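Q: How would the structure tokens look for this protein?
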Amino acid sequence: LEFRRVLFRSRAYFAKLHYHGSQHGNCNMEAETKVIEQRRMIADSLSALLVQERSGLYSCVDYLSMTEWQLNVYNLLEKSRLSNSQHSGDSQIDEYCREQIVEWSFRVVDYFRVDREVVVVSLSLLDRFLAICQCDRSTFKLAATTTLHLAVKLLHPCKLGELGILSDLSRGEFDMRDVALMEKHILSSLNWQLHPPTPIAFATLLLDFFFTSNSVELSPTDMDDLYDISSFFSELAVCDYYFVGLTPSIVAIASIINALEGMF
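A: Here is the predicted structure in token form.
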């Protein structure tokens, strides 16, 4: 979050220089050049996210309504002690299970002071895996722990050592060896598609592009709040299963609109 704010303030600074220079007929050419470079970089990043989104590689289906899956998790876990669990219809996962996992994931990243976008990436991995592989509640918790561990490994590897205690939260149901085995199967099932275009990434880049392309009279505090509230709405969308099948860019635009309506 702080890194994002520093980048944004830098962009806003150059945008303001450009604006004031234009107003007084004394445009700072260096600032103008930097603004143009920033805008081009942001546009390239947005284009890359859109290509990812349109590829369909990171999309997900309504897996809670599915009756057949390509894989069954107990066939993947070989003869581990998890395969001795009861596998009955009573242990079927539902929207409430997913909501609880999302809330738990946010509590974990907040405790370890990790960027909350890690949870968004983790849930993208988890949702897409569950659309391929059938899990019950026990293995669902293992899969959720694994995707959170994997998302931290991808985005904040320096925090990985602290997260070794994640398996302790399972109360003996599984350990880090089970997490490692599940990680291998998740990576294989997802064909190593590990960097999804997230609503938070879209919202941040859309606001970046807007503020480097337009002169808007907003205070630095209002600008920071717009970024933070947009991100907050994107995080809320992660909690609700309804948004699983929606495109991230649409969620991002809706989050920005909601933030603007709430602020002004």
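The CA atoms of residues 10 and 35 lie 10 Å apart.

The first strand starts at residue 71 and ends at 72.

Upvote if useful.
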